[in-house]
Amino acid sequence: MDLTCRFLSREAAHKTRGALRHTSRRAARHLSGVALLALAACSSGGTGAPGTAANGGPATGARNVGLLLPLSGANGALGNEMVVAAKLALAKQSGTVAPPQVDVHDTSGATGTTGAMQAAIAAGDGIVLGPLTSADTGLIAPQAIQAGVPVVAFTSDLAQARSGVWVFGITPQQQVARLVEAARIEGRRQFAAFLPDTPLGRAMGDALIRSCQNMGLATPQVVYHQTSSEAIRSELATLSAYDSRSATASGQATGPAPDLPADLAAALSSASKASTAADAQSPTDPKAVPPPSTSAASPASTSTTTTPTLSAPPFDALLLGDTGLALKDVIDALKANQVRSTQVRLMGPGLWAAFAGKLGGIAGAWYAAPDPAARTAFVQQFAAQNHRVPKPLADLAYDAGTLAGSVYAASGGNGYPTDIMTRKEGFSGVDGAFTLSEDGRTIRKLGIFEIQSGGGTRIITTPVPKNPLVPGSS
């Protein structure tokens, strides 16, 4: 992306700093809206190193923390809640260094997200927490990098990660990698995915392929399905090899074993064909076996014939990505195609946590998410101050505030150096421990949650290796 934004001079920054702060505080007193968050399209950005200005020198006024969030409009209520959470974290005293000052900039104001970022630079903010979405992150990244201001964005779109711009949301890639790691420990070796043809589904599919590659597993088969129930059932039948499994179960899979010598296999095959032809020509022969009256049942068949129990599908771990009514259709298709949880470890997105109590139909399925036990103290703090329970995204803002406060204290109040932000020991947060990588990723320790038959979940700290349900294990 071309760097087309002009930046205020240092003198202009000092003159406008007080006015900008006053405007932010005044706007924060007149906020309302609906907390809605959606992933947006990705944008590209530039390159550079955080903590330095465009000319390679240190960024000016690098002590304040800037919050870039929607303080008005559709996402105003959510943005304000995240402001409260971030300020709660930043108010904590760490050692002998006083907490940093906080500037709030409205990304829904007249000048938009780029104007809010320009205001943060003019105010001398040394780090920016926000913005909220992927698209907004792409817009402000070139400005931030040019000015040497590190950004901790709340998006979960990993495409926005780069040096100096950290993707702080819990990404699909993090979730899938954690699930594959746990399933591999359990003994799963053949992975597959049945995912919606959406940006989330595509991100999960790419993550599964990469995770399997990184862990030395076979390349998974990934299917992106259409939304109709008919398409879901049909495409899952293909993925699970329903027809061949059904034919085998019905005794229609004839022919010699593949490991016989070629000449013996040919002889047996010829004899089998001759015998079948003779039987067909002599229906009155008492030794003849009548041919089956119907073909192998399909999952969509309306026949009253009992469908035989099928063998396991050609995978022992299956990644799903649907929610809502589409997930119901997927669950119905799993049953129709006899993809059973006794043979296959089902896995899904962390979004399942919001309605896990309704997922008893896929009991035993896993999803990866932060351990809610670590959130308890924050919820109590937030509720005591605001008389309500915080929304989940407030967690990210609180953890980002904790990060900024910790780095500021560790630097002795001198700003937000990259080497401290990316320290190996990482940071503790209400969504679990995390570390920042130099390429803009946030690495989190996620828990594995297993859906229970009666609804609800239980957290699994360590999967048991060599699960006896896995074919070939002991």
Automatic annotation (TrEMBL):
Biased composition range(s): Low complexity: 294-313
Region Disordered, annotated ranges: 273-313
SUPFAM superfamilies registered for this protein in UniProt: Periplasmic binding protein-like I
UniProt keywords, alphabetically: Amino-acid transport, Transport
Keyword match Iron-sulfur: no
Superkingdom, taxonomy of origin: Bacteria
PANTHER family named among the record's database cross-references: LEUCINE-SPECIFIC-BINDING PROTEIN (PTHR30483), PERIPLASMIC BINDING PROTEIN OF ABC TRANSPORTER FOR NATURAL AMINO ACIDS (PTHR30483:SF6)
Protein's name according to its UniProt entry: Penicillin-binding protein activator
Species of the source: Acetobacter conturbans
Source species taxonomy: Bacteria, Pseudomonadati, Pseudomonadota, Alphaproteobacteria, Acetobacterales
